[in-house]
Structures are given as structure tokens and as C-alpha cells.
Write a structure and sequence with these properties.
With 82 residues, the chain is of the alpha+beta class. The protein has two helices and three strands; from the N terminus they run αβββα.
Length: 82
């Protein structure tokens, strides 16, 4: 997991204005659910941000999904789950 977090951290540091939010909730019947939202500024419109969301049963799963999105070079503006 540390590799995923390191890659995300490097990206955010080199692309100022990007933002990562991670939260965790306890499920009624046990366990946890993790959620992350990654935002990055649109290169053509500084007032607009692209964002994606990821859900998973572990922090590692969520970090892996966000890192894979960043590595893909794609930019979605519809808030899709990755």
C-alpha cells in the first residue's frame, strides 16, 4: 500500500490544486467501507475540477484504484467510480 500512497503523494505535489479525500465508515453488520475522492484541476479551465471516486473494503484497495486512475492519464469529469 505504501507504494500507492507514495505515487499519489508525488502526483499531488507535482500537480498543485489536486486533492485527495479519504473516509472510512463502520458498516452495520461489521467491517469497514473506505471511500476516496480524487480531484484535479482542468488544464483548460482553472475554475473546474475533474473528479473520480473509489470505494473498497480496505484502504489499500481504495489507494490502488486511485493510483491506477492517475497512472492511466485519463481525466473524467462525471465523478465516476473507478
Amino acid at each position: 500500500m505504501e507504494q500507492y500512497i507514495t505515487n499519489i503523494e508525488k502526483y499531488i505535489k507535482s500537480h498543485m490544486g489536486s486533492d485527495l479525500t479519504v473516509s472510512c465508515r463502520v458498516l452495520v453488520f461489521g467491517g469497514f467501507e473506505y471511500w476516496a475522492r480524487f480531484e484535479e484541476p482542468d488544464e483548460d479551465n482553472e475554475d473546474y475540477k475533474h473528479f473520480v471516486q473509489a470505494r473498497g473494503k480496505s484502504l489499500e484497495e481504495v489507494a490502488r484504484k486511485i493510483a491506477a486512475y492517475i497512472d492511466s492519464g485519463k481525466a473524467y469529469d462525471d465523478g465516476r467510480l473507478v
